[in-house]
Specification:
The termini are far apart. The chain contains 8 helices and no strands. By secondary structure, the protein is mainly alpha-helical. Helix 2 packs across helix 5 and helix 3 crosses helix 6. It has one domain. The longest helix is centred in the last third of the chain and has 22 residues.
Length: 172
């Protein structure tokens, strides 16, 4: 029986490395959205079906959430800028490229560069992701099988804000 040694490594992403990957992310051509999204979804399924590292699976889940936000017409049309869309599609495009900075077929580290790209994209649109998460939560609480859009969400957030102010005043 072969003795396999497990070794852990820590990786520090320096500003230089981060800038390098940001440049890659910004240079990716995202013209074929439908094909990119379809291929990314196939990769999600494939990676989840294999014994993929939990670190990679967390990033795949993050990218799926970004893609869900991208595809939500109520949110995407009014809230996502062109650059936000580009970051999401670029991360998807990078994921589907098997021969990238670290070829994906290298066991255990092949998807590390993909995770770095997903992290950068996620950080670039962090505010949008947080707002979208809040939108979905608010929609689940307040919609009651009715149409609930971004304007309804904004009104609800405004009402909640005023309610908190009133409650603070009443506690004095």
């Amino acid at each position: 029986m072969e003795n396999i040694m497990n070794t852990s490594y820590n990786l520090t992403i320096t500003n230089e490395i981060n800038t390098h990957f940001e440049n890659i992310l910004n240079s990716i051509n995202t013209t074929n959205n439908v094909d990119t999204i379809s291929q990314a979804r196939k990769n999600f399924v494939k990676l989840k079906a294999t014994k993929t590292n939990p670190y990679v699976l967390k990033h795949i889940d993050d990218l799926e959430k970004m893609l869900q936000m991208f595809e939500d017409k109520q949110w995407s049309l009014s809230e996502l800028s062109q650059s936000d869309r580009h970051y999401i599609l670029s991360a998807c495009q990078y994921l589907i490229q098997e021969d990238d900075v670290i070829p994906d077929n290298i066991p255990n580290i092949g998807l590390l560069d993909d995770c770095i790209i997903i992290d950068i994209a996620s950080n670039k649109i962090k505010k949008q992701l947080n707002n979208y998460h809040d939108f979905k939560h608010t929609k689940a609480v307040y919609s009651k099988d009715e149409e609930f859009n971004v304007n309804d969400w904004r009104k609800t957030k405004q009402q909640e804000k005023f309610s908190r102010i009133r409650n603070r005043r009443n506690k004095r």
